[in-house]
Structure formats: structure tokens, C-alpha cells
DNA sequence: ATCATTCTGTACTGACAGGTACAATGCATT
DNA sequence: AATGCATTGTACCTGTCAGTACAGAATGAT
């Protein structure tokens, strides 16, 4: 492994694929568009992902999941609730680039792509909601409200992504996130 | 025009296309899957929509837009604000079948399909937010809060669709809508 | 019954889809 | 510098894509 290597590793390819699936969706991301945008030939692609496009998407989803598990869900379960929740909003804004980048998991949930990755999609959101609800309970919120409040926050991020992209308005995304952050701790 | 006619009219085809685009997305909705699911042959399809798939999707979006204009936006602008807002939540729940049916406009906003229909997508959400914010102002809400509150409601519906579909949980959709409805008038 | 028009099924096209085969290359180790 | 394995480009496969052509069936008006 050297800094100047021209050859790829599987780990280098996944982030590139992620951006392409985000922009084009699963069906829109054709092999030729992938090779065109990444400069990686079919040979390499099928070497790293023998299962083809489906394995590529699965690898991307797994990486997304790992990222959220590490930087959002785990802290919510482990750290001081108020701090972890504040970090969640910050991380969400950074990860989604203030609405400039969509949530691949949410996008896959909307069309028939969901069927292929149902378990992964479900787990991603389920664990987010549960971790956040847990943090809310630990911060003193009654358990009866915590789940609904957590669902509301997670759903709000997804909605903010849709709307800010629809209106091509990043400011809306930040504004919505700020408001949700306030509401989550006060109400 | 007779009740027993076996031949289609353009107006008959659009709702069928709508469901297909909703389920499969723009890229996923291939001509053969359209003919397969609707039973309408290519001949008829290209007769009604000489511009092909893009014209089909545009027709669907236009119909969606018309529906919301008539049953949501216009009432919000015209009728008693409290009543129109209550009707909006009811209509949203019915139209999206408690999360069993996604918002095509929102789904198109997420991937590159947005580029094709940017103006329509923007207008759909822009007019929704403006009409709702206007109703809120007329109901006594300060203009400084109205827009943000309206954005929040619209984005919340989109997010609820994503999340309820991701978790395959219609109850979540209804619960989220109820909560948003309460928050919109109280807070 | 005729006729012009609207509508429809079938067959076709060239382009491109996902995927495979494999020879050639790059690189770390020795 | 030779070996062995990871990586890559190219050519190719079969199926499906969006779109076209067009003959014929159904329709409404006369």
C-alpha cells in the first residue's frame, strides 16, 4: 500500500459508487455511467464486486450504515444524551452537506429498490430511531413521548432533504434542522 | 364517448402511469413494464404520448399538480384557514393512502430525474408552502413564523412518506401526521 | 354502408443494458 | 529479474431498452 499507487482497492471504489447511486438512483446508475464517471473499468468493478450492481449498492449501503453506527448511533447510546444529540444534528448537516447530498437509504426506500435492500433500509432507520429515543429517555424525557419525538426528528431530516433539493435551497435545510433541534429538546 | 368503450383515452392512461412511476421511479419504469402492467400496447402509448416516456411522466406530474391545486392549495388560499388546514391533513392522508403511496414529485426530486422536471417540482412545493403560509397568516399567525411553519409541515409529510415506507409501517405515517397537525396550530 | 379518424397490435430498429472471458499489466516479495 | 497474485482494459455475449413503421380494427358522423 503506497500513497502513489495507481491501482484501486475495493475501499477506494465504494465512496465513488456512493455518490453515483445518490445522484442517479439504483436504476439510473448504469454500468457505463459508473465507468464513465469514475474512470474505473468494468474489469476492476467486477473484480471487486463479482455480484455486479447489486453488490455495489449493497457495499455502499453497508458503508453508510457503518458510518452512522459509528458517528451517530453509538454516541447516542453511549455518550451524554444532550451532547450526543447536538452532535447528531451537526453530523447530519455535515454528512448531507446541508442538503447538497441526499440520503441514499431514504431514496432507495421510495421505489421498488426497497425490495432488494429492505432489511438494510429498515435497520438503518430502526436503529437510528431507537438510539435517539434511548438518549431522550436518558435525558429525562418520558418514554411515552420519546419514540414519537425520535421518529419526528429522523423523518424531519429526510423531509428536509427532499424539500431542499426540490426547491434547490440549502438554506431551507439548515433552517429546518435548527428548528427541529430546538423542538427536540424543548417540546 | 360511451361507457362500454374498449378503447382508451389519454385521460384513462395517466392514472395508470402514475402508479407505475410511483412504484418504479422514472428510470425503473421501462416501456415494457408499462405495457405489461397496464395492458396498453406501445402503439397506444406513443399515440397518446408522442414524446415517449418523458411526456408520460410530464402528464402524470401535471395531473398530480392539478389535483393538489384544486383540493389543497386553492382551499388554503380561499377558505377558512382552520378548516382548509384540517382538510389538508385529511386529504394528504387519503391521497398518500396513509403512507402506502409515495409522493411522485418528492421522489423525482431526489435523483437526476429532478433535472428534467425541475420547474414543475419546484412549483408544486413552492405553491404548497406559500398557500399554507398564507392560511397561517390569515389565521393570526405572525408572518415571521408562518413560512417556517409551513415548510415544516410540507417537509414533514415528505419525511413521513420516506420513513413509513422504509419501516413498512403505515401506523407511523398516521401518527406523524396527527402530531404535525397538532403542532402546526398550537406552536 | 361509407368513410375519415382514432386507436391498437405486431414487428422491427439501433443503441445500450448487465455481465463474462481473458490476455496484459502493475506491484510486492524474493 | 523472476515469480505470483491483484488489478485492469478490451472485446464480446445475450437480452432489453426507447422509439418507429404501419397495417388493420374500432369508432362516430353522414
TrEMBL record, chains A, B:
**Gene Ontology MF term list:** DNA binding
Superkingdom of the source species: Bacteria
One Pfam entry name: TetR_C_13_2
Query: In its keyword annotation, does this UniProt entry include Ion transport?
Result: no
Write down the DNA-binding region ranges: 30-49
Q: Which InterPro entries does the entry mention?
A: Homeodomain-like_sf, HTH_TetR, Tet_transcr_reg_TetR-rel_C_sf, YxaF_TetR_C
Q: Where is the signal peptide?
A: none
Ranges for domain HTH tetR-type come to 7-67
Task: Report keywords, A-Z.
Answer: DNA-binding, Transcription, Transcription regulation
Q: What is this protein called?
A: TetR family transcriptional regulator
Lineage of source species:
Bacteria, Pseudomonadati, Pseudomonadota, Alphaproteobacteria, Hyphomicrobiales
Amino acid at each position: 500500500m503506497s500513497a502513489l499507487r495507481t491501482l484501486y482497492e475495493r475501499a477506494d471504489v465504494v465512496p465513488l459508487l456512493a455518490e453515483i447511486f445518490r445522484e442517479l438512483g439504483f436504476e439510473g446508475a448504469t454500468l457505463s455511467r459508473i465507468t464513465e464517471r469514475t474512470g474505473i473499468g468494468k474489469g476492476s468493478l467486477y473484480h471487486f464486486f463479482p455480484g455486479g450492481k447489486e453488490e455495489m449498492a449493497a457495499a455502499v449501503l453497508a458503508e453508510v450504515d457503518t458510518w452512522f453506527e459509528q458517528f451517530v448511533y453509538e454516541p447516542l447510546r453511549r455518550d451524554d444524551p444532550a451532547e450526543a444529540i447536538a452532535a447528531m444534528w451537526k453530523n447530519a448537516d455535515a454528512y448531507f452537506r446541508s442538503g447538497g447530498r441526499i440520503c441514499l437509504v431514504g431514496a432507495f426506500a421510495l421505489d421498488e429498490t426497497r425490495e432488494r435492500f429492505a432489511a438494510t433500509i429498515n435497520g438503518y432507520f430502526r436503529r437510528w430511531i431507537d438510539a435517539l429515543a434511548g438518549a431522550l429517555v436518558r435525558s429525562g424525557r418520558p418514554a411515552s413521548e420519546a419514540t414519537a419525538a425520535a421518529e419526528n426528528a429522523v423523518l424531519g431530516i429526510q423531509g428536509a432533504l427532499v424539500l431542499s433539493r426540490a426547491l434547490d435551497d440549502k438554506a431551507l435545510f439548515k433552517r429546518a434542522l435548527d428548528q427541529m433541534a430546538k423542538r427536540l429538546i424543548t417540546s
